[in-house]
């Protein structure tokens, strides 16, 4: 989704802003632009397409100034084109704005402004913001007050950054609701503004986050934060430990490939410091703020999430219900927020989100909060809104994920949920010592097991060559690995554009079996878990109808080897952790198929890394 980067300081703003926008490329975008105050005037360069086109434009017509803002746009209103790209310059040429979010009442505002004689240069909803600021500049006495007044007219959720040629010593940034974050990076005599941390981490680790309905007035020497109503807010600076090198591709062709291969390490980090493997075993999740009293009062957990995170939540349901004996419902966040869910005392809502900025998930959290639920989150992006809204949090320890298709931010929360299930069970007193010891001992194995799956990369690539031209693919799973089928199919469709369906295997006979013929590869997820026998009969049923069966089977499983056309082998894994190992060959398969088809693996068409609009 849209990314914003701003700079004010002694250095040349253009390369810093372009560099920051590059770091946000992973979010997905279809046009880009840049505005710099040069000799007292605002100069804008914008173009459709990738940042390289903007760079060409800037080298042909350079920008020279120490204050500027840049933007990568993911089109919502108006096609991706130079005229619709941000930043938007007002008609006086004095004010320029970059915006994330959707102005829900833009038609109304546009008509009002048009009736007052305003002309529009784009088809975007965002352009009304710059016109409103310009309109109020004369009456409100400066950029800060004019922006405040303009924002009071907007409906929806927004991140806004504005510059004024008459006040070249400041950038004004504001956040309303949850259309992505606004983060301020404080350097030495220079300050950065961005929608996301990776844009600025190479320059500073000292950052402040804007909450909803806050504005920041950013100058070379510092930042003042205030509410939209004008009350001063104490600046809270956080130190961020993420290593920007972790966000480089290194030896890999794509970020997705790198992130798949980082999973063994990410899982080690996920467990590190949280599990006591001695003394009978135990789990420590201090940031969750879970007391024995709260644990005992929990009647029900809703897990809310979107896409891959929701698939992780489905595995979490199986784990928490099985280990902690608490009923769990998994809700797609975009449904939960509008379905008037029943929240009674003892309800906990657990949001899962790698970005922590997904608009639907945040709105669902707010809905849950309004209804009085206790709020938890499992989040990767440190300092994100989903982390800050929650009463307690588990942070995924897997480092920045850049590829749009989520991989390590899928397996890390699976392990977080496994630890949560044990922790809850322990605090509620439903876990006997032997079971606890054995569940904890299994956890120690998981990074190595993930590593063993990664070592089989070459086998998966071979299969990818056979499947790369298929037009459809069916993924079947059951029990704790039913979500593995959903997630495997999602990975394939989002990066290779091959139609793929994940299905609960038991449902085949109720309709989808009609699809099976020689043209339909069927991936049957059949590790040695409690549903193994059922899955085995699925292989036979698919074969009997001419389907090409790819079995996902445990090492040494001769039955599957004999029955299936191809096998992807998995190391023997304790069944409650089997979704972690079972997904890895499916991630690799999707990756290799997309790479072999020559597709843009890290930034697939129409997709964005954080979906900050509804
Ligand atoms: C994952 O591969 C997808 N691109 C997508 O489904 C993603 O999981 C979903 O948008 C949720 O994102 P979040 O984890 O940032 O909330």
Description:
This protein has 614 residues and is α/β, with parallel strands linked by helices. It is built from 19 helices and 27 strands. The chain is globular, with a radius of gyration of 25 Å. The N and C termini lie close together (12 Å). The relative contact order is 0.09. 2-deoxy-2-amino glucitol-6-phosphate binds next to helix 9.
Offer a quick outline of the entry:
With 614 residues, the chain is of the alpha/beta class.
SS element count, helices = 19
Amino- and carboxy-terminal Cα gap: 12 Å
Helical proportion? Answer: 25-40%
Return the average pLDDT rounded to an integer.
92
Which molecules are bound besides the chains?
2-deoxy-2-amino glucitol-6-phosphate
- Beta strand count: 27
Largest sheet: 8 strands, antiparallel
Q: What's the overall geometry? A: globular
Structural class: alpha/beta
Outline the low-pLDDT stretches.
none
Strand order of the largest sheet: 3-2-4-1-10-9-11-15
The rounded Rg comes to: 25 Å
Strand content: 15-25%
How would you describe this structure in keywords?
globular, 614 residues, alpha/beta, binds 2-deoxy-2-amino glucitol-6-phosphate
Write the layout of secondary structure elements.
Layout: E1 3-8, H1 13-23, E2 31-38, E3 41-48, H2 51-60, E4 67-73, E5 88-89, E6 95-101, H3 106-115, H4 127-140, H5 143-151, E7 158-164, E8 171-176, E9 183-186, E10 191-194, E11 206-209, E12 214-219, E13 222-227, E14 232-233, E15 238-239, H6 255-261, H7 263-271, E16 275-276, E17 282-283, H8 292-297, E18 300-305, H9 307-324, E19 328-332, H10 333-336, E20 347-353, H11 359-370, E21 374-379, H12 385-389, E22 392-395, H13 408-428, H14 433-455, H15 457-467, E23 472-477, H16 482-496, E24 499-504, E25 521-526, H17 532-544, E26 548-554, H18 558-563, E27 566-570, H19 578-596
Parallel strand pairs: 18-19, 18-20, 20-21, 21-22, 23-24, 23-25, 25-26, 26-27
Antiparallel strand pairs: 1-4, 1-10, 2-3, 2-4, 5-6, 6-7, 7-8, 8-12, 9-10, 9-11, 11-15, 12-13, 13-14, 16-17
Bound molecules: 2-deoxy-2-amino glucitol-6-phosphate.
């Amino acid at each position: 989704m849209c990314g914003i980067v701003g700079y004010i300081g002694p250095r040349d703003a253009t390369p810093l802003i372009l560099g920051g926008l590059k770091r946000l490329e992973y979010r997905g975008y279809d046009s880009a632009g840049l505005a710099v105050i040069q000799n007292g005037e605002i100069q804008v360069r914008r173009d459709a397409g990738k940042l390289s086109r903007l760079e060409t434009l800037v080298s042909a017509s350079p920008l020279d100034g120490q204050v500027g803002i840049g933007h990568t746009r993911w089109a919502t209103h108006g096609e991706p084109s130079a005229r619709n790209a941000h930043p938007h310059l007002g008609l006086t040429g004095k004010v320029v704005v970059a915006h994330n979010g959707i102005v829900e009442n833009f038609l109304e505002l546009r008509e009002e402004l048009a009736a007052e004689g305003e002309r529009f240069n784009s088809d975007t909803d965002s352009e009304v913001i710059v016109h409103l600021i310009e309109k109020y500049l004369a009456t409100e006495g400066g950029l800060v007050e004019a922006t405040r007044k303009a924002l009071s007219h907007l409906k929806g959720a927004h991140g806004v950054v504005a510059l004024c040629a008459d006040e070249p010593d400041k950038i004004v940034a504001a956040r309303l609701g949850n259309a992505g974050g606004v983060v301020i990076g404080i350097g030495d005599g220079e300050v950065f503004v961005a929608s996301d941390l990776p844009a600025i981490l190479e320059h500073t680790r000292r950052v402040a986050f804007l909450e909803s309905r806050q504005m920041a007035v950013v100058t070379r020497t510092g930042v003042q934060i205030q509410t939209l109503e004008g009350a001063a807010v104490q600046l809270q600076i956080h130190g961020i430990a993420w290593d920007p090198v972790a966000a480089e591709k290194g030896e890999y062709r794509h970020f997705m490939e790198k992130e798949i291969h980082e999973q063994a390490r990410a899982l080690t980090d996920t467990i590190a410091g949280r599990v006591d493997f001695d003394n009978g075993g135990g789990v420590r999740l201090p940031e969750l703020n879970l007391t024995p009293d709260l644990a005992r009062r929990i009647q029900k957990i809703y897990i809310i999430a979107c896409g891959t995170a929701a698939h992780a939540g489905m595995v979490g349901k199986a784990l928490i219900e099985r280990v902690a004996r608490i009923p769990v419902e998994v809700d797609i966040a975009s449904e939960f927020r509008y379905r008037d869910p029943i929240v009674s005392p003892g309800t906990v809502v657990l949001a899962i989100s790698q970005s922590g900025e997904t608009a639907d998930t945040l709105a669902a959290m707010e809905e849950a909060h309004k209804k009085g639920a206790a709020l938890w989150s499992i989040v990767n992006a440190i300092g994100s809104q989903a982390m800050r809204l929650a009463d307690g949090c588990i942070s995924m320890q897997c480092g920045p994920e850049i590829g749009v298709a989520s991989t390590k931010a899928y397996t890390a929360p699976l392990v977080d949920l496994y630890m949560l299930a044990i922790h809850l069970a322990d605090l509620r007193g439903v876990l006997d010592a032997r079971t606890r010891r054995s569940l904890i001992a299994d956890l120690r194995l998981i990074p190595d097991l993930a590593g063993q799956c990664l070592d089989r990369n070459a086998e998966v690539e071979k299969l990818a060559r056979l499947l790369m031209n298929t037009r459809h693919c069916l993924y079947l799973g059951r029990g704790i690995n039913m979500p593995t089928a959903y997630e495997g199919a999602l990975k394939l469709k989002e990066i290779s554009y091959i139609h793929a369906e994940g299905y609960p295997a038991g449902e085949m006979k109720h309709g989808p079996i009609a699809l099976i013929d020689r043209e339909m590869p069927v991936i049957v997820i059949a590790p040695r878990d409690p549903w193994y026998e059922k899955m085995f009969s699925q292989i036979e049923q698919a074969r009997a109808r001419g389907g090409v069966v790819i079995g996902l089977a445990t090492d040494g499983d001769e039955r599957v080897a004999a029955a299936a056309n191809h096998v992807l082998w998995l190391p023997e894994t304790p069944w409650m952790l089997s979704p972690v190992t079972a997904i890895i060959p499916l991630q690799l398969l999707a990756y290799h198929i997309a790479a072999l088809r020559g597709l843009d693996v890290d930034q697939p068409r129409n997709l964005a890394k954080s979906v900050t609009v509804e």
